[in-house]
Amino acid sequence: MTGQYSIKDLERLTGIKAHTLRIWEKRYNILEPNRTNTNIRFYSNDDLRKVLNIAILNNYGLKISKIVGLSADELHRKVLEIGTDHMEESVQIESLIVAMIDIDESRFERILSNCTIRMGFEQTVIKVLYPFFKKIGILWQTGSVNPAQEHFITNLVRQKLIVAIDSQGMTERADRKRYLLFLAEGELHELGLLFYNYLIQKAGHKVIYLGQSVPIKDVVEVDKLLPSDVILTSTLSLSRIDDCNKLFQTLLDHFQGRTIYITNKIENTEGFIVNENLKINVSLEAFKASLS
After folding, report:
1. Is 214 exposed, middle or buried (CB count within 10 Å of its CB: 0-12, 13-18, 19+)?
2. Which residues pair with 247 in a beta bridge?
3. What is the number of other CB atoms lying within 10 angstroms of the CB of residue 11?
4. Which of 91, 175, 263, 284 is packed most tightly, with the most Cβ within 10 A?
5. Within a 13 Å sphere around the CA of 282, how many CA atoms are in the beta-carbon half?
6. CB of 199 within 8 A of CB of 230?
7. pLDDT at residue 243 above 70?
8. DSSP string, 204-247
9. Could you tell me if 282 and 291 are in contact, meaning their C-beta atoms sit under 8 angstroms apart?
10. CA nearest 241: which of 257, 220, 262?
11. 205 near 177, Cβ under 8 Å?
């Protein structure tokens, strides 16, 4: 981590409102912000870790007046004592953030394993990992998070997804379709694509998985050899509608008559190309329904 967080960064990561943090800071002296050379307040890794631990205990039902009386060691020990079997998802997400900050692989594994046992792998991804990465993604874009810690967690999750995909075996249904999954050149965030791979194979369909940063011409060549029924990709690096539409039209031209699923970070799809074969930002529930 960079170690320089604004109070809004703390709010995004912990879920505690900035107004509440300011009150706690004044009333209980739980934080001691530093200042930049231009007198702008910022918070350190230790501050973030402390607020996350307080948020975990507070979400678990402990009153802030009781929590602030704990020493740093007592606070840490109390958090570790909390059993994860009955944790709310918000607490698990906060615990994952602490594991990321500390580069604590064993803690990450313990949290994820307990979530998987309690709610299953698919729901763990949807209810815990997706919101977790959404929080981290916001801070990564603003430069508040060092990519090294993000890569640490990303690679651990990637390993879990690959193991889950391999566990599906080769069972395929009689009416199976072939799905072609890839990320275009410059697209490197693969976790979402891997999860779609998992869902598709779990439903009994065939997947051709090409992975990250693949030139469109290479994707087209693969499709000539093994034509697919459905194309699926993600364009998270594209933030301008014109750039998105250019890629969308290229895909429509090359894969005529095929259904094309695309996930994009632009939530308002007004201005995107409209085509009956183009499915942009379809909900996960709707996509899963299409698989059946």
Report:
1. middle
2. none
3. 17
4. 91
5. 18
6. no
7. yes
8. T-EEEEEEEEE-HHHHHHHHHHS--SEEEEE-TT--SHHHHHHH
9. no
10. 262
11. yes
Phi, psi of 210 (to 5 degrees): -100, -20
- Longest distance between any two alpha carbons in the chain, whole Å: 68
Secondary structure (3-state) at 179? strand
Average pLDDT in the chain: 86
Encode burial over 36-74: b for 16+ CB neighbours within 10 A, e otherwise. eeeeeebbbeebbbbbbbbbbbbbbeeebeebeebeeee
Q: Count how many Cα atoms sit within 13 Å of the Cα of residue 225 in the half-sphere of its side chain.
A: 7
Three-state SS string across 62-109, please?
CCHHHHCCCCHHHHHHHHHHCCHHHCCHHHHHHHHHHHHHHCCHHHHH
Rounded to 5 degrees, φ, ψ at 112 are: -70, -40
Residue showing tokens 């085509």: 275
Sign of CA dihedral 56, 60, 64, 66: negative
Query: Is the Cβ–Cβ distance between 291 and 205 less than 8 Å?
Result: yes
pLDDT in tens, 198-238: 999 999 999 999 999 999 999 999 999 999 999 999 988 88
Which backbone phi and psi does 260 adopt, to 5 degrees?
-125, 115
Give the angle 137-143-146 at the CA atoms, nearest 5°.
80
Inter-residue contact 223 to 214 (CB < 8 Å): no
213: phi then psi, degrees, rounded to nearest 5: 45, 60
